[in-house]
Amino acid sequence: MTITFYDLCGRDSKRFSPYGWRTRMALAHKGLDYTLELVKFTEKDKIAFSGQPLVPVIRDGERVIHDSWVIAEHLEDTYPQRPSLFGSAEGRGMAKAINSFVNLTVQPLLAPLIVADVVAHVDAADSDYFVSSREKRFGKALPEVQVGREETVEGFRKALEPIRIVVKDQPFIGGVAATYADYALFGTLQWARCTSGFRVVAADDPIHAWFERVLDLHNGVGRGEPAAV
Fold this sequence. Notes:
Layout: E1 3-8, H1 18-30, E2 35-39, E3 57-60, E4 63-66, H2 68-78, H3 89-118, H4 127-138, H5 142-145, H6 149-159, H7 161-167, H8 180-195, H9 206-215, H10 217-220
Parallel strand pairs: 1-2
Antiparallel strand pairs: 1-3, 3-4
């Protein structure tokens, strides 16, 4: 089957969606070829066929799947002969728990630290939409959202302690090899790396060392996307 992957892009085709990165890493892990279709924030018509307005979306043969977690499960179940994203049924449960932890805790804590920085990486045609929609979400101007982030980042770092305990003693969240549990958190930290020069994880943090290892996976697909400066 032929896979088409619809992923968010910004200025100069930069790809920084945290959820898009989960799918990008999952496809790389599985070693699956695909056709890439880039979608800007205001190009929702490109994915209207999926019945909803958000990326990532994949079209795999006749099937259309959206939501990065659902996509991961589809890839695992449809291509069992390829390297497993979960390792086992128990690993799938653990990955789902990490995925939910990132969605409900990590992502909301990170967004206020970098959201104003993201504007510089959004395509010019999407800038007004991005700013107005995010200011509505946060209830204030985006530069105001980031005020005091040098202090509030400590709350974000503290929230990562359960992951820190794990990767201090093993190379990946999944153990000796990366699994989708790693990609769930990686996608969110890659969002920060690609859009903001603000250091959200200290250089001496075990999570920083883990992140560097994941950047190098699959022929360095993560590191190939330029970091913000």
